[in-house]
Amino acid sequence: METVILDLEIPIKMVLPITPVPGQNVQDSIRETGIWSREETDILTNILKNNPYGTVVDVGSNTGYFSLISLSYHHPTIAIEANPIHKQFLTESVKTNEMDSNLLQYHQAFASCRDEDVNFDGWTGNPEIMNETEIYTVKTVQIDKLCKKALFLKIDVEGCEPEVFKSAFYLISNHQVPYIVFELTYIINDKVDEEQINLLRFLYDNDYHLYEIGSEKLHPIKNIDHCLSVWSHDFYTKYKRDGVTCGGCNILAVLEGNIVPYTICDTTHTTDTDEIESI
User: Fold this and answer.
1) Alpha carbon of 272 to those of 154, 238, 241, 275, 276: distances in Å?
2) 119 close to 135: Cβ distance less than 8 angstroms
3) Are strands 179-188 and 152-155 parallel, antiparallel or unpaired?
4) Residue 167 in 3-state DSSP?
5) How far is residue 170's CA from residue 173's CA, in Å, rounded to a whole number?
6) How far is Cα of residue 48 from the mean position of the Cα atoms in its chain?
7) For a tag site, which of 47, 57, 166, 274 has the least CB within 10 Å?
């Protein structure tokens, strides 16, 4: 293990693995820059500073970056991570920073509304992109059974986002979580994944304002179909040629009546309409 000091308003000593682990890009970024995803970090920090109370739910917590930020502001934190290798690093980071371990509720599990164990390959539980040579089973946990109200829900589960949303159906549909940040994997194996796109429609129907998290700005999503056209255009013209088979972006959902915790871009997505229509 090695310790890195995070470049945050409240300095945190984060314990990282020395040998490669799933999510190695996260560990490498933290080592090189002292931070992982400046925009998402600032979004969570702004929410925590302006809301002194409320539970943070970190789904796909990996080695605990966002959980540690939450704990540094003394917020109750639920960390959910299916890969057993990651727990030791978050536990050690909590000890190193002398954080209140009673504020942390850790579940080595896969967030789902299903009661039975599910297959997992150490990185994803989505059978369409799973590495079939490394599959093992993990238990499941339902978010709605862990908490009835939360301040912030973060989801990064490599193509399994629909499962997580189902496990938090009560929380979302009853307006019990004002802020959600999640990875939207809109293309899986070169095809648009409608179940993923329906997550945006579900949130929109439940009074959430949607934003794509861009570089230092939020891009409002006012027309889901138009945004999908833009994302698909970018994928097929820029990324697919390099052998990429999945396309995604990060989304912020803010429940109506709550303050948007980051800078909003004045314009929405734009691209060449003729090129979009030709896809």
Assistant:
1) 33, 14, 19, 5, 6
2) yes
3) parallel
4) helix
5) 5
6) 17
7) 274
Tell me the one-letter amino acid at 169. F
- The answer to whether 188 and 126 are in contact (CB under 8 A) is yes
Rounded to whole angstroms, the Cα distance separating 184 from 159 reads 8
222 backbone φψ class: left, alpha, beta (φ>0; ψ -120 to 50): alpha
- Do strands 140-141 and 152-155 pair parallel, antiparallel, or not at all (unpaired)? unpaired
How, if at all, do strands 56-59 and 152-155 pair?
parallel
Q: How far apart are CA 6 and CA 10, in angstroms?
A: 8
Low-confidence residues of the chain: pLDDT under 70? 241, 267-279
Q: Cα–Cα distance between 120 and 69 in angstroms, integer?
A: 27
Name the residue type at position 31. R
Contact assessment for residue 167 and residue 111, using Cβ atoms and an 8 Å cutoff: yes
Q: Where are the alpha helices (DSSP H) in 65-208?
A: 65-72, 87-96, 143-146, 161-167, 169-173, 194-205
- Give the pLDDT confidence of 190-200 residue by residue, as tens digits: 899 999 999 99
